[in-house]
Each structure stands twice: as C-alpha cells, then as structure tokens.
Description:
Undecaprenyl pyrophosphate synthetase, 7 helices, globular, binds farnesyl diphosphate
Amino acid sequence: xxxxxxxAIIMDxxxxxxxxxxSSRNEGHKAGLNTVEKIIKESIKQKINFLTLxxxxxxxxxxxxxxxxxxxxxxxxxxxxxxxxxHKKDIKLNIIGIKNFSKKLNKLLNFSEQKxxxxxxxxxxxxxxxxxxxxxxxxxxxxxxxxxxxxxxNLSKYLQTKNIPDxxxxxxxxxTKRLSNFLLWQLAYSEIFFEKKLWxxxxxxxxxxxxxxxxxxxxxFGNI
Length: 224
Ligand code: FPP
C-alpha cells in the first residue's frame, strides 16, 4: 500500500454550484467553505500530514471586485472564527503565495500562522495569491543571487513548499482537467484525480474513495 503524506486540492466548481442552486456565485463559495471543513476533519482521521488547498490564484484577481471582496471576507470570517478550533486540533496553518492583501487580512494571516506554528498533527498549506510559474521563477532568481548551483535540490529549497514533501495526490473537483498554474514543479509525479462533482458537493466519502484507490496504485516513478 502506498504511503500518503500530502494531498493537494484544486477546489473548483463553487461558482457553478452557487449559480445552479442559489442563483449566486458567492453562495457557492460559502458552501465550499463547509466542504473545506469536512475535508480537514477527514484528513486528520486519515492521518494525512499535509493538505494544500488552492483558495486563490494570481489569475483570480481578474474576477469582478464584488466576488474577490466576498472571498476575502469569507477567509477573514473563517480565520477569525475558527483559528482557535484549528489550534486545539493541533493544526498548523501555512500560507503559500504572496501576502499582499489588506493590512487587516495580512495581520490576521500572520497571527494565524504564528499561533499555530508549533502544531504537528496536520499542516494546511493555504494557497492564496499563488502562482506556480512565479514561484519557480522566483526560486531560479534566488539560486542565481546566492550563486547556488542550478539543480533540482536547490530549486526546491527556494520554493514556498520547502520542507514539505511533494503531494502524492492531486484532486481537482468541478469536471475540469487542468492544473491552472498550481504546484507545477511539486506535482511532477503525483497521482491526479479529476472529479466530476463541484467542490460544494464533494464529501468525505468521495475523499475516502480516492484515498483507497490511490493506496492500491502501482507507482513506478519512471521505472517499470
Ligand atoms: C474555485 O471555484 C474556487 C475558488 C476560486 C475559491 C475557493 C474558495 C473556497 C473553497 C471557500 C473559501 C475557502 C477558504 C479557505 C476561506 P470557481 O469559483 O472557479 O468555480 P467555477 O469554476 O464554477 O466558476
């Protein structure tokens, strides 16, 4: 059985779900937050050590301001209401991406990271204003600046996921088969599961089904 340490998820389909059931994309994001909580709980049950969630990409800034504001308000609500609970559950919150949000949100993100920094049961990497091409380029620039040898080990060292093992699994919900500039380096050998369900409809059963399937896959890593 394959060991499982790290699951990465592209939580796609909130907008479509919201339009379909509530005539509002934002309602889909609200419903998506419930799924986030379910998957966090199940990850702990499954003894997964790292969960990386794509919450906002560098390209998502192109959305209408009203939707962007809603998403960040939702994030603020989530952190201010739930950080104590996450901390009690021994969850560590780590932000990947560029933290250039409002002063208030940056402060809340830094506070949440600091408060949970020593926790070890589950590390949640929340990808916010994250873009993988930027991350890789930035890493190359840092190698050059520090006169490091250009190799895989050094490139990985400057990624925002340094010290985090690569994900064994990527899940993308929402019936779309693309990577959308997410962890392009780190996913080189991950098993990818594209799910038809929209993120708010995704549940623990779907998650467990994927985990079970993954555990039985013969992983070759280029070998035979
Ligand atoms: C993609 O669906 C989802 C997002 C851009 C936001 C993800 C946010 C959440 C799951 C809720 C908030 C999470 C936290 C941690 C506070 P989409 O809007 O692109 O859906 P579509 O493809 O149907 O348009």
